[in-house]
Specification:
This protein is α/β, with parallel strands linked by helices. It is built from 19 helices and 13 strands.
Length: 441
């Protein structure tokens, strides 16, 4: 394919060189003439493993050249990758100035008729927040071109997952390829660029592709912060943190796995909250600051409050709650987030009915019974004997269980507002209904 790459920084330079190395005909574009001259001389404008040799080779064979002329680049390509920087503003917001400028230039070049025959596809590879492409960049393109994105112009988002220092290696052996496609033809054009590369390919809506890069980087930062905080606590307690983490990392069932990584409701139970509090207290006694660990329970509480807020937003007072124990298949109510949710709603004067097939007041014993009597002493009045009893009562139904009897009875369309805490199996269908809200979207 004939490809133009806008921006010859780390991402653009590596992308241009690697695509040329795959056999594409690539032209790099940059406003910095020094970078343009370096590339045309077969030299890399960035310091990166293997990039010098690769650029020298693809420039020598004629597969890669560079220019400062946007019109020339558009004329000589069928697909453009936008790799310009999106730095932070002083207040932390995303700076889209360079993105907007290059989008205007590409649109103007296309409008001048520089691209003859066939549809040009513009692919945004820069990191940008969800909504940036569709709400900001697509209108700019359409305004300058005088046509419709997805019809007259192809548009896609293709985030990169390149680590500085190993970016050439990462390009040829990617962890995944993500294509946010405005239409099928746009996605096909991007897919053709990477034909032959390993790794799973995900073709998703444009905003999803924009969000994935942030999910990755936020989690990477969280992992590093978690490991460092835990290491600091271990050191203060005289424990070898590397031994601890070696065992931690060996657990591929719960720790290094998809477990617990699906959006849903708050956590609870007799272990997680208690152990987090103990660990943070131990850190505080040892004068070790652990802001990530110290705010996990706060984050959990805030997420629970979001469910309360959803109920308040409906303006309705009769509430049905499906599920009460802290996890399915048990009657353990200790530190259950659903008990906390019921307590907060009851305290605000809501008329509540609760159904949980596993919870019977007469069967609650010991610490479990003591806990519920201290937190929700009116439980006997709130418990319902059947799903139907709750549905007949409720104007708002909070679904916190996957009990098949509950899921099969939930009405569609007309009926109570459904507040989904678990992501119902038919959530995608329900999202189009006016009476559906969710924390697990």
């Amino acid at each position: 394919m004939r490809v133009s790459v806008f921006g010859l920084g780390y991402v653009g330079c590596v992308s241009a060189a690697c695509l040329a190395g795959m056999g594409h005909e690539v032209i790099g574009v940059d406003v910095n003439q020094v970078k343009v001259d370096l590339v045309n001389d077969g030299k890399a404008p960035v310091v990166e493993e293997r990039i010098g040799e690769l650029i020298a080779e693809v420039v020598r064979t004629g597969a890669l050249r560079a220019t400062g002329d946007v019109r020339e680049a558009i004329m000589d390509s069928e697909i453009s990758l936008v790799c310009v920087g999106t730095p932070s503003e002083p207040n932390g917001s995303l700076c889209t100035t360079y993105l907007e400028r290059v989008t205007e230039e590409i649109g103007a070049a296309l409008a001048e008729g520089a691209k003859q025959g066939g549809r040009h596809t513009v692919v945004f590879r820069s990191t940008m927040l969800p909504g940036t492409c569709l709400n900001l960049l697509v209108p700019i393109l359409e305004k300058h071109v005088g046509g419709l994105a997805g019809v007259d112009i192809g548009v896609a988002v293709n985030p990169e997952f390149l680590r500085e220092g190993t970016s050439v290696r990462d390009f040829f052996d990617p962890p995944k390829t993500v294509i946010g496609e405005l239409d099928r033809a746009s996605g096909d054009a991007v897919l053709a660029l990477y034909d032959g590369l390993p790794g799973e390919v995900f073709r998703v809506p444009v905003p999803t592709a924009e969000a994935i890069k942030y999910a990755d980087n936020a989690f990477h930062g969280l992992k590093i912060g978690f490991a460092n905080e835990l290491g600091a606590v271990c050191q203060a307690l005289g424990v070898d943190s590397h031994q601890v983490m070696d065992v931690f990392l060996a657990d591929r069932k719960l720790n290094i796995s998809p477990a617990y990584l699906r959006p849903g409701f708050a956590f609870g139970g007799s272990c997680l909250p208690k152990d987090l509090r103990s660990l943070v207290h131990a850190a505080q006694r040892a004068d070790v600051s652990v802001p990530i660990l110290a705010h996990v329970l706060t984050s959990n509480s805030d997420h629970l409050q979001r469910a309360v807020d959803l109920v308040e937003r409906t303006g309705r007072r009769r509430v049905g709650l499906f599920g009460l124990s802290f996890k399915p298949g048990t009657d353990d109510l200790r530190e259950s987030p659903l008990v906390e949710l019921a307590e907060r709603l009851f305290g605000k004067g809501y008329d509540i009915k609760i159904y949980d097939a596993n919870v019977s007041l007469s069967r609650l014993l010991g610490a479990n019974r003591e806990y519920i009597e201290s937190r929700l002493p009116h439980l006997a009045q709130l418990l319902a004997d059947s799903v139907d009893e709750v549905l007949e009562h409720a104007e708002v139904c909070l679904v916190g269980t996957r009990d098949p009897a509950v899921l099969s009875a939930l009405p569609h369309g007309e009926g109570p507002v459904i507040v989904d805490l678990i992501r119902l199996p038919d959530a995608e269908t329900r999202r189009t209904e006016p009476g559906y809200m969710g924390l697990a979207w």
